[in-house]
Design brief:
Length: 514
Amino acid sequence: MKKIFPHSLYNPISLVGALLAGLSFSMILFLIILEFMSGEHSPYMGIVAFIILPVFLIIGLLVIAYGWYREHKLSKRIDFKARKFPVLDLNDPKQLRAVLFFSIGTVILLFFSAFGSFKAYEYTESDAFCGTVCHSVMEPEYVAYQNSPHSKVGCVSCHIGSGADWFVKSKISGSYQLYSVTFNKYSRPIATPIDNLRPAQETCEQCHWPKNFFSEKKVDLDYYLSDEENTKASLILLMKVGGGNSEIGNTEGIHWHMNLANDIYYLPSDRSRQVIPWVKVVSKETGKVTEYRTKGFNTKVDENGENIRKMDCMDCHNRPAHRYNEPSRIINITISNGKIAADLPYIKSITTQALDDEYATKEEARAGIEKKITDFYRNNYPEIYRTRAKDIANAVKEIRVIYSKNFFPEMKVSWRKYPNNLGHMNYDGCFRCHDGEHFSSDGKVISNDCNSCHILLEEISPQKGRQIAIEGLDFIHPGGIEVSFKTQKCSACHGVGDEAKEKKEKLMKKASVH
C-alpha cells in the first residue's frame, strides 16, 4: 500500500489521535445537521456539540502531533544530537502532501472552532442553558420565570446585562456555581438575595423609566373566606404608582423612592434585608440629609460600609421573575376565574390546606392533594361527593397545577422560603420602613398611613355589603375579625411561621369563623 504521508505519521499513537479527532469531528457535523433539521432543540445537544466534542477533537489533533514527533525522534535516535527537530522538505511529495493536508485541516478547524465558540457562547447565554441544564437546582426558578410577566425577557438581560465587565463577572460566578452543582455543595433552597446582582439602574431601567411613573392604577381584588359558603369579598384599590416625575409636579406615590431628586440609603441588620433599623434620605436639590432610626437603635453607622445599600427597584420588586404564590392568594384568583367551583362547600379552605401541606416529593404531593380533597367530601358531604365528582376532580387538577408552579419539595422551595417585598401581606415588605417606628432627630416619622400608597375606593364585605367613597374607605376585615391596621401588621397573621399561624387561628376563633 502506497503511503501518502511521511512515515513518521504512521504510528499507533498518531492513529489513535486520528481516530479520536475523526470521530469527534463527524459527531459535531452530525449534531449540527440534526440541530438545524430538528424542530425541537435539546439543551444537552448544545453542550455536547459545541463544548464537549470540540475538546476531544483538539485532544485528538494534539495526540497526532505528539505521535508524529515521538516517532520521528525515535527514527533519528542514532543521529539525534545532530538533528533534534524534523526537517521540512517541500520538494518531497509526501511531506508536501502532509503540509497541505494539515494546513487545510487547520483552516477548517479554525473555522469550525470559531463557529463552535460562537455557538457555545450563544448557548451558554440562552434561557434553556440557564434553566434546564441543572434540572433539580434551577427548576424552581425556571418554572417561576416561565410563568412570570418577564418570561419573554432573557435571563442574561437581567442577570448580566450589556458590557464585558459584567460578562466576565458572571462567568467567574458561574464557574463556582458549576463546581457547587458538580460536588453537591449548593444550598436548598438557593440563598437570596443574590450578593453579586447587577444594579437595577443598569438592567431594569433599560426598559422601565422611573422618571415617567406618574399615573395611578386601578386594581380589582376578589377573595373568598374559609367558611362553608366560601363567602366572597372584594376590593377596588387606586394604587398611587407615581412619584417619579418632578417636572410635572407629581412627586407623591409609591415610586417617590425612585425620584431622581432623592437618594435613599438603608442599613439592613439581617442577610434577607427584612429588618431595617436605619434609613437615610438625601435631597439632590438641596443636599439636605435626613436620618431615620428605630427606637433603641443607637449604633454608630459607617455610611461607607459594605452593608449600606442604596435603594433601587430590587428592594421592593425583589421577585420580578421568580415569584412563588401564597396558596390563599392564588386560590382566590383561580376561584374568581371560574376554574374551581365556588359553590363547593369549604372549597377555599380545603384546597388551601391541601396546597400548603408538607410533601417530600412531587409524586407524594399529587397523591396527597387528591386524597385530602376527595376524602373531605367523601367523609363530610357524601351526596356532593357522588353528584359533583367532576367538579371535585377539576378542583384536584387545578390545585395540582398550582402546586407544580409554586412548590418544589426537592429544593425545599415555596412561598415561605423567599420573602416578597412587593406589598405587605405575607412579609413586612413596605412595613420594613413604613411602620411608623422610624424617627428622625427632629421628630419626623416614616409614615405608615395606608393612603400614602393606595386609596380604597370600594369594598364589598359580608358585614356591610357594598361601600363606595371617592376619598377612600377604612378597610373592614371580612369575617368579623377586628384588628387595628395602625398597630397590627398584615404579616403578623398572614405571614410565615408558627407564631403568625397561631395568631390567625386565635383571631378567627374569636370571630367565630370556622
